[in-house]
Structure formats: C-alpha cells, structure tokens
Design brief:
By secondary structure, the chain is an alpha+beta fold. It has one domain. It is built from six helices and six strands; from the N terminus they run ααααββββαββα. The strands form two sheets. It has a four-stranded antiparallel sheet with strand order 3-2-6-5. Strands 1-4 form a two-stranded antiparallel ribbon. The radius of gyration is 17 Å and the shape is elongated.
Length: 161
C-alpha cells in the first residue's frame, strides 16, 4: 500500500491529506513517536499553535511559517485588517490541516486566506474569524516541503521491510 501511495504522490494522482490519512496507520511501530506526532499534526492541524506567538523557542516546523497579514473575515466573506497588536506581525504559523492548505492552494487567484482559529481570541466578539492573507506561492512551498518529508518517511518505512 505504501509503495502505491508513493507512486500516486509522485504522479500527483492523490492529495496529500488523503495519502497521509491512508498511510498513518502503517507508520505505527515503524517510526518514532516524534515523527508520528508530526504526521498526526499535519493531518489534523497543530492544536497548540497559539504557543508559536507566545514562545519564541518553539517546536513548530519552520516550513509552515509564512509572511502574511492577519485579517478578520466575517460570515459573508468580507475581510478587514486587525487592530490588535498581533496584527502587526509579519510572520504567521499556518496550523491548519494539510488538506486545508491544499484547498487554499487550489482556490483562484494568487492570494488566499488560511484560517488561524488559535488567534480568534484576539478578534472582537462577533467580528469574525482570524485568517492569514498569504500568497499561494507560500502555500505551495509548505506543500512541497511536507510532500518531500512525507515521501522520505514512506521510504524509511519501506526500507525496514
């Protein structure tokens, strides 16, 4: 199964999120806990992403840090700047599941919005949800980096057979 997934990934015949969901059970007992945790976070999203903004020495994958702008998006899709000081930051950690990033990369245009639910506490009540306005090029960079590391993990497990 892992060989087939790798072949499909290399040929862009399967989405990363789908391939990861299928492969993850095969990694149990074959890769270390830290790598399993990383893969689970990629699949489900990083649950402690707020720590990225509070603690400069964090354990988050650097390939998920992007240059962007913090915005608030209301339920109608209207986007506005954020007045909070955290909105002045230039770098943001995209904690969303890899499948969400794939969806963002496939939207039309060169700019996309990725939800940052961990930052919703800084938005005014009823104002909307925190999103990062980011170039698709940066989303694609994240996906390429993850894909490369994911395939390396598949290769490592296949080599142990």
């Amino acid at each position: 199964m892992l060989t087939e997934l790798k072949t499909k990934l290399l040929a862009n015949q399967i989405l990363l999120g789908e391939a990861l969901g299928r492969a993850l059970p095969s990694f149990r007992g074959k890769v270390g806990d830290a790598r399993l945790n990383w893969l689970a976070n990629e699949l489900q999203g990083y649950p402690n992403a707020l720590d990225f903004y509070k603690n400069p020495s964090n354990e988050f994958p650097p390939y998920r840090v992007v240059q962007g702008s913090l915005r608030v998006m209301d339920s109608q899709g209207n986007v506005a700047p954020v007045a909070h000081a955290i909105g002045q930051r230039k770098e943001f950690f995209l904690a969303a599941p890899v499948a969400w990033l794939e969806d963002s990369a496939n939207m039309p245009g060169q700019i996309t919005y990725v939800e940052l639910p961990e930052l919703n506490i800084y938005m005014g009540m009823g104002m909307g949800n925190a999103v990062c306005e980011v170039s698709k090029e940066q989303i694609e960079r994240i996906l390429v980096n993850f894909k490369r590391s994911f395939i390396a993990c598949i290769d490592e497990v296949l080599a142990k057979k």
